[in-house]
Amino acid sequence: MLLKGKQAADFARKPKPSVWAVLAFGEDPGLSSDAAHALIKAWTPKGATMDVTTLDDDSIKKDPSLLFDGLEAVSLLGDPRVIRVRTSGDKIAALLIEAIQKGDSQEEYYSARLIIEAGGLQKRSKLRAAAESAQSTACLQLFADDAGDIEQRVKSVLKAEGVEIIPEALALFVGDLPGHRNLANSEIEKLALYARGLGRPLDLNDVRALSATDVDHNLSAAIRAALDGKPALVHSTLDRLAVAGTSGISILRSLQFETMRMLDAQSRMASGQSNPGMKLRPPVWQSEWGMFSARLRKWPTKRLMRVMERIYEAEQQAKSGSGSADPVIRVLMNEIARAAELAS
């Protein structure tokens, strides 16, 4: 059973009782991790504690019994159990497929439930195919959030703390969040801790005081530098991102998001909308509109569409290669910066 996007995220929060195993996958490992947390919460009976065993590729490859014995074992305290496996999708695919097929052959074949967290899986992936075809296994394909989804997630976390946030501050905070889900979650948690006991709605000054990590600032700076035509600044910020361990796919996602926002702006301007910057997600404030509109003049719609094509090509190239994606990303960002420089 394959579910995608919002349906996949909704399933993780409220899984079908007949499903004993879940394969959660997506380019951002933070999405799979969040889905696993939601599943564990949903599977934990009220008043009980879930016994969670976490395994990875190396531990299972070295000793496959860790997987199968773990699935078969019953908790000494009678607590429900989950085996949580983080995998690249290749090293132990055969063992995971065997586990899925055995669990699917008979109701309650195993004592524990199974969650498999993987990165991006192509349609030809045998692990993905096994999960899709199994009757009692759910295959969840997770995609990056859009701005509206992120806003709802932030408001939900703050609501749990009994805190409100003014719309301008929410838009600024969401716009500054890193593209990587785990980093974004960390920033949201930091905001919630700051807001606890504040006694008033969060405002722009609060968000600026707690603005996102250096990683995010460098990521935003790299994207702006490329689109503004500043190759030297692009490479220096990419160097800092590499030191911080930022993935090439996260950089591509951020570039894609900003390109789509610029396409939205071009469309709104072409249709004659007044104050189009405030209708974007996140909005462009009046004080920022001068620089943003100058950027738009360098990137008309046709050129932005070409950037989208190059992002897709770079992503395919990064995924198909056996080495690091960093050289592919650097070449693309340099090409964009050079093109913007010439447009100046």
TrEMBL record:
Keywords annotated in UniProt: DNA replication, DNA-directed DNA polymerase, Nucleotidyltransferase, Transferase
Matching PANTHER family: DNA POLYMERASE III SUBUNIT DELTA (PTHR34388)
GO MF, one annotated term: DNA binding
A single Gene Ontology CC term: DNA polymerase III complex
Catalytic activity: DNA(n) + a 2'-deoxyribonucleoside 5'-triphosphate = DNA(n+1) + diphosphate
Annotated GO biological process: DNA-templated DNA replication
Highest taxon of source: Bacteria
Top EC category: transferase
Signal peptide: none
NCBIfam families: holA (TIGR01128)
Annotated source species: Hyphomonas atlantica
InterPro entries on file: DNA_pol3_clamp-load_cplx_C, DNA_polIII_delta, P-loop_NTPase
Gene coding for it: holA
Family to which the UniProt record says this protein belongs: Belongs to the DNA polymerase HolA subunit family.
Gene3D superfamilies assigned to the protein according to its UniProt record, in alphabetical order: 1.10.8.60, 1.20.272.10, P-loop containing nucleotide triphosphate hydrolases
Protein's UniProt name: DNA-directed DNA polymerase
Catalytic activity, EC: 2.7.7.7
